[in-house]
Hints:
This protein is α/β, with parallel strands linked by helices and 325 residues long. It has helices at residues 15-24, 36-39, 42-45, 61-66, 85-90, 103-119, 121-129, 156-167, 192-198, 218-223, 241-250, 289-307, 318-324; strands at residues 6-10, 26-29, 48-53, 72-75, 94-96, 148-152, 171-175, 188-189, 201-204, 229-232, 255-258, 278-280. It is 36% helix and 15% strand. The longest helix is centred in the last third of the chain and has 19 residues, at 289-307. The mean pLDDT is 97. 2-keto-D-gluconic acid binds at residues 54-55, 76-79, 102, 283, 285-286.
Amino acid sequence: MNQKPKVIVSAPLPADLRERLAARCEIVDVPTGQNPAETVPAALREQIVGMVCTMRTKVDQALLDAFPALTVSSNFAVGFDNVDLAAATRRKVLICNTPGVLDGAVADVTIGLMLCLARNLVAGDAFVRSGEWTKGAFPLTRDIRGKTLGLLGMGRIGRVVARAAHAFDMNVVYHNRRQDPQADGLATYVERDELFKVSDVLSVHIPLSAETRHSVGQRELALMKPSAYLINTARGPVIDEAALIEALRAGTIAGAGLDVMEQEPLPAASPLCQLPNVVLQAHVGSATHETRRAMIDLAVANLMDALGNKTPQAMVNPEVWQARA
Length: 325
Ligand code: 8YV
């Protein structure tokens, strides 16, 4: 009898999905965030052909070397900045991800942060709870209606944010590496500097890569209006956080809404936690029961498809798959 292929699972797996995967594969559990190369015994490492993991697993050269039989690594995330893509592609390891199923959830947090910033909703809650309201009215806030929302990056998530912003009567502009026909009717293309200059709310929706790391820095922040808000639900390191803290302290921008930071989990000692014009979330863009379920379903389907010789729905380096056929 053929042995089942051995796969690492280093992501939260619902019981029914575990059962389905176990019918086809032998599961080797690695606690989320732990290094599989250190957790899986050497003899077993050589037999691992697939993996499903979170962003906390570094799929780098060292991991690829530790698992010589690995053919597919499926990210429980749309992002794949945990993967050394060049190294994986060189080693012909297929990388999969979960695009599409989390767009609405991430867009919702983006809109939520925008409303919190403009209408000062978090401070408003504290104002009522502390009894300050009995002493006088809460200070006036800002409308988002009629204002300009700038989207840096116009992929799937950016497009859902653009659609939602229309319900708030916002004017939506975007900048992308290239103009996107799918954005037609949703947002107007502007040059990169123009985006920073004209936006009342600027929201970041680009992936993290060597090119985008710190691509929103002092220069870009200086272009923004003093009344503008910056929102990041993408990846922390895309923004130069030290420059952002400087701009927030100096009041050269009005505030920031951050679901992602350079260091996660963010320590309470971070200056960001001291700034009154910042609203923080704990990287929860996709963190709903429904969305995380859809993500793990897709991540496991990608893994099982790849091992079963069926083209996976979402491949980051499809050239590896094509070369295999
Ligand atoms: C999650 C994410 O934080 O999909 C991504 O790229 O950043 C988020 O959905 C996480 O990756 C879930 O493991």
